[in-house]
Amino acid sequence: MSATNTELREWIVTGADGLDELLVDELIALGASQPRQLKGAISVQADLATGYRLCLWSRLASRVLLPLFSVPSGDPDKLFQTALKYPWENVLREDASFAIRAAASKGVATHTRFASLRLKDGIVDRFRDRTGNRPSVDSEQPDLSLHLFIEEENISVSIDFSGDSLHKRGYRVAQTDAPLKETLAAALLMQAGWPARGQGRLFDPMCGSGTVLIEAAQMWADIAPGLARVRFGFEGWMGHDVNVWREVRDEAVAMRLAAQEKSPPQLVGFDTNPDALRSAQRNAQAAGVAQWMHFAQHSIGDWPLPNDWDAAETGAGENFTVPGVIATNPPYGERLGEEDSIKYVYRALGRELRKHLPNWDAVVLAANIEHADALGLEHKNTQRLFNGALPIFARHGRVIPAEAELPLAFYPSDDELPPEAMDFANRLQKNLKAALKIANAEGIRCFRLYDADLPEFNLAVDVYDGRLHVQEYAPPKTIDPEKAAMRFKLALRAIRHIMGLHRDKVFLKVRERQSGKQQYEKQAKRGKFFEVREGKAQLLVNLTDYLDTGLFLDHRPMRERIAREAEGTHFLNLFAYTGTVSVHAALAGALSTTTIDLSPTYLLWAERNLALNGLPDEQNRLIQADVMAWLQEEVAARPIEQYELIFLDPPTFSNSKRSEDVFDVQRDHVRMLQLTMRLLTDDGTLYFSNNFRKFGLDEALMAQFEIEDISAETIGFDYQRNQKIHRCWRIRHRNRPES
């Protein structure tokens, strides 16, 4: 180690896979030169002061290594002999401690532990032979760390100038599960052009423990990322120049002080988890940037509008209507159990960004390129990175402004219809004119258009936000099948003529009377889901695979009622199907929702619906269970009422293979309602609905509870000709507390 402190030396800088280009730019900006790509690292030339500066200032590097020597691979004795002859007395004191951290290049099969032992033996024997003493090995807190790297051709030995990995800035005093590494957070921001872009405005809608925001604040304020670290690896090196290091550090301190004169940035972080927000606040305080941070508890589904982000909550106010930068790391791995549901979180994020923050720059991490695509950004760049061993993608793009939702409209085609189809066509045209007038006035996008209005055309036509779902009811045995088939073909011609839709927007099914588990069986396997809007909710419908689409249109008024009453309640949804009512309740401000169904298929669908609306699973439980069994267990375990609002919509009959018992709504409804009412608060409301046309409510229940038949209030404009589609009751405890 005879080189002076002003001479150029070789340094090896490691970083996460995928950061090479950004890392090279950063190293050059910090004063290094002659960058050369190695396997998993960058070689540069720099003097000692610059080596110190790389450790103190690099936001992307994992380690800074000062090479000592290398030997050919495949000869452990050569490693030992070289180490034995190396002047270690110029590297570490004989009374110091050291550790060896070994790694191997990808694809190299070797025993790193054996190589480490041979290196250690050479070091120890060198000191013992020369002085009779030897340094000790301390793998936890060594005075000096050595880095041994095994490649196919060579084994290299270096001083680990950084000591601990450089992503450990020293400010993380609290953390959440699976936090983002600080180096990756910095890379995310650099890809978005921060701090040059954004004019000091940055928003992280899923901020977790605050890493992205803290890194952004430090970049804005020219705070060296290593300034808060207690120790670097070079401090145990015999060649350490305290004066040079003090100059480099004092320079960084001066820059931090000078940055206090800059205009403060506006940094806003939202998260659904209050514990994460508390961790973020503590970390920001430890980093010395808390004065610029503004945290609030929000899910994607309940962001306030930017001009409502008042100073009390965010310190941002109307300034956040001016485009800035969005940078975030959605919880793509650890939070959601079903991988495909994550895509819908990204859809929700993209939709809300378009609605609230048009023309902002956004950079978002995703574990899957399809998830990144679901954001719908105007693409600028996609970078493949690694978070540990996990490959991830950083998608950078502009937030495209949301398009105004147009009223529903359908335009007839020029096709001529045969006379036999005219009666049906005229009725459909009449229905469409009346329905669109109401639907567009009330913002309704999904409704029933035709329901066997003419006996000879025995089918139902439903509108799903610009698409049609056509169900042919199975004809009675008295009708000639050929005649029925001919009429159905005529109806289809009339539908396509009146609605003016291409075949790919018209979906056909034959509906027969179902019983038991048949209602849950697949009719096809296309797996195609469409997104529709209903009120504040975005919901997934499948128009091909199942008998029902995932959205019971006749319950639309009931969902609207639940949304009006759900704010501030704990909501329970029994026989929940695809969880659409839970979505409405959660978006309306329910404190929690609990969604219970026996079918894993429908619970997965419910999970996707919640994800599509950006609703956190912490507040929205999904439970796969037989409802009757769950009620009995819940009442036995928790005799205290816990739900202010409950929706109970059982099937008429169920003999699912997942349940040991056969459910019959007429036979079992008394016990079911009694159990459910045990879970209802004294001032709560239970809505009980079913579609069994012969159903009769047991009169004994009238004496126990306050019951009102509200069926007429829950029938929408599109079911006025079929008011027996369902029955619905509002049930409350007698002697309710006065509101």
UniProtKB/TrEMBL annotation:
Organism: Paraperlucidibaca wandonensis
Pfam families, alphabetized: Methyltrans_SAM, RlmL_1st, THUMP, UPF0020
Reactions performed catalytically: guanosine(2069) in 23S rRNA + S-adenosyl-L-methionine = N(2)-methylguanosine(2069) in 23S rRNA + S-adenosyl-L-homocysteine + H(+); guanosine(2445) in 23S rRNA + S-adenosyl-L-methionine = N(2)-methylguanosine(2445) in 23S rRNA + S-adenosyl-L-homocysteine + H(+)
Taxonomy, superkingdom: Bacteria
Functional note: Specifically methylates the guanine in position 2445 (m2G2445) and the guanine in position 2069 (m7G2069) of 23S rRNA.
GO molecular function: 23S rRNA (guanine(2445)-N(2))-methyltransferase activity
Gene this protein is translated from: rlmKL
EC top class named in words: transferase
THUMP domain: residues covered: 50-161
EC numbers: 2.1.1.173, 2.1.1.264
Coiled-coil positions: none
Family membership: Belongs to the methyltransferase superfamily. RlmKL family.
Biological classification of the source: Bacteria, Pseudomonadati, Pseudomonadota, Gammaproteobacteria, Moraxellales
Keywords associated with the record: Cytoplasm, Methyltransferase, RNA-binding, rRNA processing, S-adenosyl-L-methionine, Transferase
Entry-linked NCBIfam families: PRK11783.1 (NF008748)
Protein name as annotated: Ribosomal RNA large subunit methyltransferase K/L
Subcellular location: Cytoplasm
Primary localization class, coarse: cytoplasm
